[in-house]
Amino acid sequence: MKTVCMASVVSQNRIGTGIFDLWLHAPEIAEAATCGQFVALYSRDHSRLLPRPISLCEVKDGQIRLVYRVAGAGTEEFSGLAKGDTVRVMGPLGNGFPMENRGRALIIGGGIGIPPMLMLAERLPGEKQILLGYRDERFLQDEFQAYGQVHVATEDGSFGTTGNVMDIIREKKLEADVLYACGPKPMLRAIKEYAAEKNILAFISMEERMACGVGACLGCVCQTNSIDGHSNVKNKRICKDGPVFEAGGVEL
Amino acid sequence: MRNTKVEIAGVTLKNPVMVSSGTFGSGEEYEEFFDLNKLGALVTKGVSLIPWSGNKTPRIAETDSGMLNAIGLQNPGIDVFLERDMPRLEKLDTVVIVNVCGHSEDEYLAVTERLSDTAADMLEINISCPNVSADFLAFGQNPKMVEHLTARIREKTNKPLIMKLTPNVTSIAEIAKAAEAGGADAVSLINTLTGMKIDVERQTFALANKTGGLSGPAIRPVAVRMVYETARAVHIPVIGMGGITCAKDALEFILAGASAVSVGTANFVDPFTALKVIQGIEEYMDRHGVKNIVDLVGAVH
Questions:
Q1: ipTM of this predicted structure
Q2: What domains, with CATH codes, occur in chain A?
Q3: Span A34-87, pLDDT tens digits
Q4: Domains of chain B, each with CATH number or no CATH
Q5: pTM given for the model
Q6: Are B300 and B255 in contact (CB under 8 A)?
Q7: Cβ–Cβ < 8 Å for B56, B22
Q8: Which residues of chain B are at the A interface, by a Cβ-Cβ cutoff of 8 Å?
Q9: Is A147 helix (H, G, I), strand (E, B) or coil?
Q10: Contact with chain B for residue A9, Cβ under 8 A
């Protein structure tokens, strides 16, 4: 059940250039949340109307953890929140990752798509390896170590494999039965192609400009390759039907 | 005891607060937050004869105190609407207004006919969406065509007809008069104002459709002015909307001449907005000793 509440800030730290790690006390949301879902955070400045969708990185003891990048005035405002401040939040929203054990899994995160994969890495049952792709600066990498073998790629070659997550798969000849991914669209496209080539399932988390966050406004649709039951056209709502989709079912 | 009831074309609304077409789906998504029966009326997302896919994304861009949308009237079509959404809407104890859209006169007429024997309490005819083909927006900008289309739709149904008007005209009062002459029972205004946002860093349009409809608090003063002008020009009820976020905003429209008001974009900002507007209007009536809400309609003139 989704709720709207005033959540109090437990802590906030800067963990990279423009990357912030925010813990909020939001028991109702924490209670209901599953891996791959997101919340919507509202600005205090009423000239910024729309909530900012931010993925759940972790959920623990009535608290939710959001790791986000400052991308504009809204997230800039959130980055100034300190312990004891409150922020209006709605959630949990969307449909997350399926949690069955489907065999050897690769959990793949790219850039600011990495945070939601932490909760998945922690909770997904079965054998799993973790692939993290960064441009240069790394964050959250250490926290993944507890949940499986971690492979890192950096675009500037400063750490691990030089290149992206697909370069890790090629370089290390990784094999998998199922893929889970969140990251920039070109990365998701490459993963979709790879999964199709290997004839395995890939679950990808998508994003789009959103307004309502609950499936009413039809602002954040993605194209699907068959007619969707709700829309009756080849569109699904990322906020409500997603953000996680089986890659074979969506156009990227 | 205060009386918040209003009557539009013989249909009684328990209070003057509606939710606007396109911001509330068919209500399903907001039922998770509150009891829809509290609403004066629910206006559905526009429905067309066949399913429409809408525009490419991005369809949404935030602007200062507002937002642009270019959804393009994506909807599942009248068959799915009647089969899936209507039975659920029928069970609600609130007035259900079905919004009708089309690409041509024939499409409007066909959808209207399909809705005529249903439980829809009223029809709202969208002749004002800025996000479909330019030809069709022109329909709602031309008084002669508005009168003609209204009259044709009027012939097809006994349901009360609300014509939803575009603000992208020189004189909205003229358009409203044309709708009245064509047989409309009410007019609703304003739809969104056509706008554009440029993404300066990427040097591209913020919306895939290039232009979109501006809504939210930024447009409220324009909407209040247009409601005022329209209410003085026609004898049919005016339903006012455009940037309503609270009871005070809603009361501006009522005092300017709106018989009912509608909450749109604010549903995205806070799902409970419509409820808060209803409560706030009641508090205002008590504070000002107003027994009947209708006494406030057009009280500022």
A1: 0.94
A2: 3-93 (2.40.30.10), 105-249 (3.40.50.80)
A3: 999 999 999 999 899 999 999 999 999 999 999 999 999 999 999 999 999 999
A4: 6-54+73-192+215-296 (3.20.20.70)
A5: 0.95
A6: yes
A7: no
A8: 22-25, 29-30, 32-33, 45, 51-54, 57-62, 64-67, 69, 71, 74, 76-77, 80, 216-217, 265-272
A9: helix
A10: no
